[in-house]
Amino acid sequence: MNNGCMIQQKHSAIKTLKKKLLHRVGTAIADFSMIRDGDKIMVCLSGGKDSFVLLTLLRDLQIRAPVRFELLAALLNQRGDVFPEHAIATYLEHIGQPYVIIRKATYDIVRSKLAPGQAACALCSRLRRGILYTEARARGCTKIALGHHADDIIETFLLNILFNGTLKAMPPVLVSDDGTNTVIRPLAYCREDEIDTFATLMRYPTVPPQVCGLPINPQRGRVKALLKTLERDVPGVRASMLAALRHIVPSHLLDPELFDNVNRIGSKKEKSCAEQRSTAC
Description:
With about 280 residues, the protein is α/β, with parallel strands linked by helices. About 55% of the residues lie in helices and about 10% in strands.
């Protein structure tokens, strides 16, 4: 096969996969009203594949969407000089994307606040979120877009069930406690394997994952391995779990307060389902 044919096949693969991802992103945005006319969205870049794909898809939607919105790429450097921010900045300049680099050394802060044996991930995440909230407000951004995808949501769902005793996942839209920041996750319906393939084809200047040197939570890795085994033995289990998060029956859970509310007020969704089943019978 000559180079011309190989290039043509690559472009065809990019076009096909991009169309699929754009459809899923568009559906998620519509389902949860993520973007409104006049929004200024801070797209957070970590240097990983997910955030690069997110930026590419939002830039494409920006051209064709019926509403107008701005995009500001934000690169948060928490590692100092060891983080290759210049490569990402060069890429953003090449595609003509407005961006800002936020430099905040948080390593020492996290290390000083950890109790013996405590994992750093949760604290580091809270610090990162606080920094992004502050920067978004300072720059007039109405939304903060993060690159979490369907697999992240499913893994978080399992983590909370297995280790935290709570029934929750990652919300597609999250408003901060003070109401001044709104986080959106447009990749909520996108699969990690498709994102990986698209990122490889696009050859983004991704930053290789680096061990931060702080204690990490090993449970997410265990959940990833569990899901991989389940998917091998039960093909389609991830899609089924994602569907489960979209079809909730509150009265069939064990939360007493939720049970009382459902029985007192009634669930329109459940009543509708019951009527449909009755009609079918």
